[in-house]
Amino acid sequence: MALDRSTVDFRRITVSDPDVIGRRLGELDLAGRFGATATRVRRSDVDMVARPDMVLEAGDRVRVVAPVAELHAVSALFGDSETQLTDIDFVALSAGLVAGVLFGLITFPGGLRLGAGGGALLAGLALGAAGRLGPVSFSIGRQVSTGLRHLGTVVFLAAVGTRSGEAFAASAFTVEGAKVVVASIAVVATAMLVLRWTVGRVAHLEGPAASGAVAGLQTQPAVLAFADTSSGHSPQVPLGYTALYPAAMVAKIVLAQLLVRL
Predict the structure, then answer these.
(1) Is the pTM here over 0.85, yes or no?
(2) Is 222 helix (H, G, I), strand (E, B) or coil?
(3) 120 near 249, Cβ under 8 Å?
(4) Are 13 and 75 in contact (CB under 8 A)?
(5) Domain chopping of the chain, boundaries
(6) Cα separation of 22 and 25, whole Å?
(7) For the domain 8-86, what is the CATH superfamily, name and number?
(8) Please, what sign has the CA dihedral across residues 48, 228, 218, 120?
(9) Average pLDDT for residues 197-204, to the nearest whole number?
(10) C-alpha span between 161 and 164 (Å, rounded)
(11) pLDDT range class, residue 218, cuts 50, 70, 90
Protein backbone atom coordinates (compact mmCIF):
# COMPACT_ATOMS: atom_id res chain seq x y z
CA MET A 1 0.00 0.00 0.00
CA ALA A 2 2.96 2.30 0.40
CA LEU A 3 3.51 2.11 -3.38
CA ASP A 4 0.05 1.49 -4.83
CA ARG A 5 -3.31 2.37 -3.26
CA SER A 6 -5.39 2.12 -6.40
CA THR A 7 -6.93 -1.23 -5.40
CA VAL A 8 -6.78 -1.30 -1.59
CA ASP A 9 -6.83 1.82 0.59
CA PHE A 10 -7.33 2.77 4.24
CA ARG A 11 -9.36 5.50 5.91
CA ARG A 12 -10.40 6.69 9.36
CA ILE A 13 -14.20 6.58 9.62
CA THR A 14 -16.26 8.22 12.39
CA VAL A 15 -18.85 6.05 14.15
CA SER A 16 -22.08 8.06 14.13
CA ASP A 17 -24.87 5.75 12.89
CA PRO A 18 -27.20 4.74 15.79
CA ASP A 19 -27.54 1.25 14.28
CA VAL A 20 -23.80 0.67 14.77
CA ILE A 21 -23.25 2.44 18.10
CA GLY A 22 -23.27 -0.02 20.99
CA ARG A 23 -22.55 -3.04 18.81
CA ARG A 24 -19.44 -5.20 18.90
CA LEU A 25 -17.05 -4.68 16.02
CA GLY A 26 -17.14 -8.38 15.15
CA GLU A 27 -20.92 -8.25 14.67
CA LEU A 28 -20.50 -5.99 11.64
CA ASP A 29 -18.68 -8.75 9.68
CA LEU A 30 -16.60 -6.26 7.70
CA ALA A 31 -14.52 -9.02 6.11
CA GLY A 32 -17.51 -11.01 4.91
CA ARG A 33 -19.55 -8.05 3.66
CA PHE A 34 -16.88 -5.78 2.21
CA GLY A 35 -13.58 -7.66 2.29
CA ALA A 36 -12.46 -5.02 4.80
CA THR A 37 -10.49 -5.11 8.05
CA ALA A 38 -10.59 -2.72 11.02
CA THR A 39 -7.09 -2.20 12.37
CA ARG A 40 -7.37 0.62 14.92
CA VAL A 41 -10.02 2.43 16.95
CA ARG A 42 -9.26 5.96 18.17
CA ARG A 43 -11.29 7.00 21.20
CA SER A 44 -10.74 10.11 23.28
CA ASP A 45 -7.30 10.75 21.73
CA VAL A 46 -6.21 7.17 22.45
CA ASP A 47 -5.43 4.66 19.68
CA MET A 48 -6.40 1.06 20.43
CA VAL A 49 -5.98 -2.14 18.48
CA ALA A 50 -9.35 -3.08 16.97
CA ARG A 51 -10.73 -6.30 18.47
CA PRO A 52 -13.87 -8.23 17.46
CA ASP A 53 -15.29 -7.92 21.01
CA MET A 54 -14.77 -4.12 21.18
CA VAL A 55 -18.04 -2.24 21.68
CA LEU A 56 -18.24 0.82 19.45
CA GLU A 57 -19.09 4.18 21.00
CA ALA A 58 -20.40 7.35 19.41
CA GLY A 59 -17.49 9.39 18.10
CA ASP A 60 -15.04 6.49 17.75
CA ARG A 61 -12.81 6.75 14.68
CA VAL A 62 -12.18 3.36 13.11
CA ARG A 63 -9.26 2.87 10.74
CA VAL A 64 -10.44 0.50 8.02
CA VAL A 65 -8.42 -1.20 5.28
CA ALA A 66 -10.70 -2.10 2.37
CA PRO A 67 -10.94 -2.40 -1.40
CA VAL A 68 -11.26 1.08 -2.89
CA ALA A 69 -14.63 0.20 -4.41
CA GLU A 70 -16.04 -0.71 -0.96
CA LEU A 71 -14.81 2.26 1.05
CA HIS A 72 -17.93 4.32 0.37
CA ALA A 73 -20.18 1.47 1.54
CA VAL A 74 -18.09 0.98 4.71
CA SER A 75 -18.31 4.72 5.46
CA ALA A 76 -22.08 4.59 5.02
CA LEU A 77 -22.27 1.67 7.45
CA PHE A 78 -20.51 3.56 10.25
CA GLY A 79 -22.23 6.87 9.44
CA ASP A 80 -19.07 8.97 9.20
CA SER A 81 -20.93 12.17 10.16
CA GLU A 82 -19.72 14.73 12.70
CA THR A 83 -23.07 16.52 12.51
CA GLN A 84 -24.98 13.38 13.48
CA LEU A 85 -22.93 13.13 16.68
CA THR A 86 -24.44 16.37 17.98
CA ASP A 87 -27.98 14.94 17.88
CA ILE A 88 -29.59 13.72 21.12
CA ASP A 89 -31.75 10.61 21.12
CA PHE A 90 -34.66 11.82 23.23
CA VAL A 91 -36.17 8.32 23.38
CA ALA A 92 -33.02 6.98 25.06
CA LEU A 93 -32.72 10.07 27.29
CA SER A 94 -36.36 9.82 28.40
CA ALA A 95 -36.03 6.09 29.07
CA GLY A 96 -33.00 6.78 31.25
CA LEU A 97 -34.79 9.50 33.21
CA VAL A 98 -37.84 7.30 33.83
CA ALA A 99 -35.64 4.39 34.92
CA GLY A 100 -33.75 6.71 37.28
CA VAL A 101 -36.96 7.94 38.92
CA LEU A 102 -38.21 4.36 39.37
CA PHE A 103 -34.89 3.25 40.89
CA GLY A 104 -35.01 6.22 43.25
CA LEU A 105 -38.49 5.25 44.51
CA ILE A 106 -37.40 1.77 45.62
CA THR A 107 -37.35 1.47 49.40
CA PHE A 108 -34.69 -0.84 50.80
CA PRO A 109 -34.68 -2.53 54.24
CA GLY A 110 -34.44 0.08 56.96
CA GLY A 111 -36.37 2.62 54.91
CA LEU A 112 -33.33 3.61 52.84
CA ARG A 113 -33.84 5.15 49.39
CA LEU A 114 -31.41 6.22 46.70
CA GLY A 115 -33.52 9.20 45.68
CA ALA A 116 -33.44 10.91 42.30
CA GLY A 117 -29.65 11.30 42.26
CA GLY A 118 -28.77 7.74 43.22
CA GLY A 119 -31.53 6.28 41.06
CA ALA A 120 -30.37 8.21 38.00
CA LEU A 121 -26.80 7.09 38.66
CA LEU A 122 -27.74 3.40 38.82
CA ALA A 123 -29.96 3.73 35.75
CA GLY A 124 -27.11 5.37 33.84
CA LEU A 125 -24.68 2.63 34.88
CA ALA A 126 -27.09 -0.12 33.87
CA LEU A 127 -28.01 1.41 30.52
CA GLY A 128 -24.42 2.35 29.80
CA ALA A 129 -23.30 -1.23 30.47
CA ALA A 130 -26.07 -2.55 28.21
CA GLY A 131 -25.02 -0.16 25.44
CA ARG A 132 -28.25 -0.60 23.53
CA LEU A 133 -31.64 -2.28 23.83
CA GLY A 134 -32.93 -3.29 20.42
CA PRO A 135 -32.89 -0.26 18.14
CA VAL A 136 -32.27 2.23 20.99
CA SER A 137 -28.63 3.15 21.71
CA PHE A 138 -27.66 4.67 25.07
CA SER A 139 -24.29 5.99 23.93
CA ILE A 140 -23.93 9.79 23.83
CA GLY A 141 -21.56 11.56 21.48
CA ARG A 142 -18.44 12.94 23.14
CA GLN A 143 -19.21 16.52 22.10
CA VAL A 144 -22.69 16.35 23.64
CA SER A 145 -21.38 14.56 26.74
CA THR A 146 -18.64 17.14 27.31
CA GLY A 147 -21.05 20.03 26.79
CA LEU A 148 -23.58 18.60 29.25
CA ARG A 149 -20.85 17.91 31.80
CA HIS A 150 -19.46 21.44 31.67
CA LEU A 151 -22.95 22.95 31.78
CA GLY A 152 -23.80 20.72 34.74
CA THR A 153 -20.67 21.85 36.58
CA VAL A 154 -21.52 25.54 36.11
CA VAL A 155 -25.16 25.06 37.17
CA PHE A 156 -24.11 22.98 40.19
CA LEU A 157 -21.64 25.58 41.43
CA ALA A 158 -24.11 28.39 40.84
CA ALA A 159 -26.86 26.55 42.75
CA VAL A 160 -24.58 25.71 45.69
CA GLY A 161 -23.27 29.27 45.85
CA THR A 162 -26.65 30.99 45.77
CA ARG A 163 -28.25 28.59 48.27
CA SER A 164 -25.37 28.27 50.71
CA GLY A 165 -23.50 31.55 50.41
CA GLU A 166 -25.55 33.51 52.93
CA ALA A 167 -25.67 30.68 55.48
CA PHE A 168 -21.92 30.08 55.13
CA ALA A 169 -21.09 33.75 55.62
CA ALA A 170 -23.33 33.94 58.69
CA SER A 171 -21.84 30.91 60.44
CA ALA A 172 -18.29 30.42 59.17
CA PHE A 173 -16.93 33.50 60.95
CA THR A 174 -18.27 32.55 64.36
CA VAL A 175 -16.40 30.43 66.90
CA GLU A 176 -18.61 27.39 66.34
CA GLY A 177 -18.50 27.91 62.57
CA ALA A 178 -14.71 28.10 62.60
CA LYS A 179 -14.56 24.81 64.51
CA VAL A 180 -16.76 23.15 61.92
CA VAL A 181 -14.64 24.51 59.05
CA VAL A 182 -11.40 23.30 60.66
CA ALA A 183 -12.91 19.89 61.41
CA SER A 184 -14.21 19.60 57.84
CA ILE A 185 -10.79 20.41 56.40
CA ALA A 186 -9.17 17.83 58.67
CA VAL A 187 -11.67 15.11 57.74
CA VAL A 188 -11.41 15.77 53.98
CA ALA A 189 -7.61 16.03 54.05
CA THR A 190 -7.30 12.77 55.99
CA ALA A 191 -9.63 10.96 53.60
CA MET A 192 -7.76 12.27 50.57
CA LEU A 193 -4.34 11.31 51.96
CA VAL A 194 -5.58 7.79 52.73
CA LEU A 195 -7.08 7.53 49.25
CA ARG A 196 -3.90 8.81 47.61
CA TRP A 197 -1.83 6.22 49.44
CA THR A 198 -4.31 3.44 48.64
CA VAL A 199 -4.63 4.12 44.91
CA GLY A 200 -0.86 4.40 44.62
CA ARG A 201 0.07 1.28 46.58
CA VAL A 202 -2.89 -1.01 45.90
CA ALA A 203 -4.34 0.07 42.55
CA HIS A 204 -1.02 1.45 41.19
CA LEU A 205 -2.68 4.63 39.92
CA GLU A 206 -0.47 7.67 39.53
CA GLY A 207 -0.64 11.18 38.13
CA PRO A 208 -3.84 12.05 36.21
CA ALA A 209 -5.58 8.77 37.07
CA ALA A 210 -4.99 9.37 40.79
CA SER A 211 -6.31 12.94 40.44
CA GLY A 212 -9.46 11.59 38.81
CA ALA A 213 -9.85 9.06 41.62
CA VAL A 214 -9.64 11.84 44.22
CA ALA A 215 -12.35 13.78 42.36
CA GLY A 216 -14.46 10.62 42.18
CA LEU A 217 -14.24 9.98 45.90
CA GLN A 218 -15.34 13.56 46.56
CA THR A 219 -18.12 13.21 43.92
CA GLN A 220 -17.17 16.72 42.91
CA PRO A 221 -17.47 17.83 39.27
CA ALA A 222 -15.53 20.98 40.16
CA VAL A 223 -12.54 18.90 41.29
CA LEU A 224 -12.88 16.78 38.14
CA ALA A 225 -12.85 19.90 35.95
CA PHE A 226 -9.73 21.19 37.72
CA ALA A 227 -7.95 17.82 37.39
CA ASP A 228 -8.93 17.58 33.72
CA THR A 229 -7.63 21.06 32.91
CA SER A 230 -4.44 20.69 34.97
CA SER A 231 -3.55 17.40 33.26
CA GLY A 232 -4.03 18.80 29.77
CA HIS A 233 -7.26 16.82 29.31
CA SER A 234 -5.59 13.47 29.88
CA PRO A 235 -7.92 10.50 29.20
CA GLN A 236 -6.67 8.94 32.46
CA VAL A 237 -8.55 11.52 34.56
CA PRO A 238 -12.09 10.37 33.65
CA LEU A 239 -10.99 6.74 34.02
CA GLY A 240 -9.93 7.33 37.62
CA TYR A 241 -13.06 9.40 38.26
CA THR A 242 -15.56 6.84 36.96
CA ALA A 243 -13.82 4.04 38.85
CA LEU A 244 -14.76 5.58 42.22
CA TYR A 245 -17.62 8.01 41.60
CA PRO A 246 -20.57 5.52 41.52
CA ALA A 247 -19.58 3.73 44.73
CA ALA A 248 -18.78 7.01 46.51
CA MET A 249 -22.09 8.60 45.51
CA VAL A 250 -24.21 5.63 46.63
CA ALA A 251 -22.22 5.40 49.88
CA LYS A 252 -22.83 9.09 50.64
CA ILE A 253 -26.57 8.78 50.01
CA VAL A 254 -26.88 5.73 52.27
CA LEU A 255 -24.61 7.08 55.02
CA ALA A 256 -26.48 10.39 55.15
CA GLN A 257 -29.73 8.56 55.84
CA LEU A 258 -28.08 6.32 58.45
CA LEU A 259 -26.62 9.34 60.25
CA VAL A 260 -30.05 10.94 60.46
CA ARG A 261 -31.50 7.76 61.96
CA LEU A 262 -28.67 7.50 64.48
Answers:
(1) no
(2) helix
(3) no
(4) yes
(5) 8-86, 90-261
(6) 9
(7) Regulator of K+ conductance, C-terminal domain (3.30.70.1450)
(8) negative
(9) 80
(10) 5
(11) confident
